[in-house]
Write a structure and sequence with these properties.
Structural class: alpha+beta
Shape: globular
Oligomer: single chain
Largest sheet: 3 strands, mixed
């Protein structure tokens, strides 16, 4: 069964995001920098302002985040498993990896 969840995209400054270009609330806190742990709600994707402002880059990054979230929710994958599959989808262009 496919579970559909709406995610809000929140644009954040480089000061808040640091070196990270995008994060979502299902990334384990142990994978996050200390200043962001327990701060990102599960229904949000945070994206750095300069990435969001570049439409092509924004679409690519949000596609990756959407793929991770879809796999984590619908296939009950861990963040690392979903990230690896989302990266493979980006590298190969095989959209079927993340589609239901």
């Amino acid at each position: 069964m496919k579970i559909i969840t709406e995610f809000k995209v929140r644009v954040k400054s480089t000061k808040i995001m640091g070196e990270y270009i995008a994060l979502h609330g299902r990334v384990p806190n142990s994978e996050l920098p200390e200043h962001l742990r327990w701060k990102i709600p599960e229904d949000e994707i945070w994206i750095r302002r300069n990435v969001y402002d570049d439409k092509r880059r924004r679409n690519k990054i949000l596609g990756h985040e959407d793929c991770e979230l879809t796999l984590m929710i619908n296939e009950d994958l861990t963040y690392k498993q979903a990230h690896a599959k989302a990266t493979r989808m980006e590298e190969t262009g095989d959209l079927s990896i993340c589609k239901y």
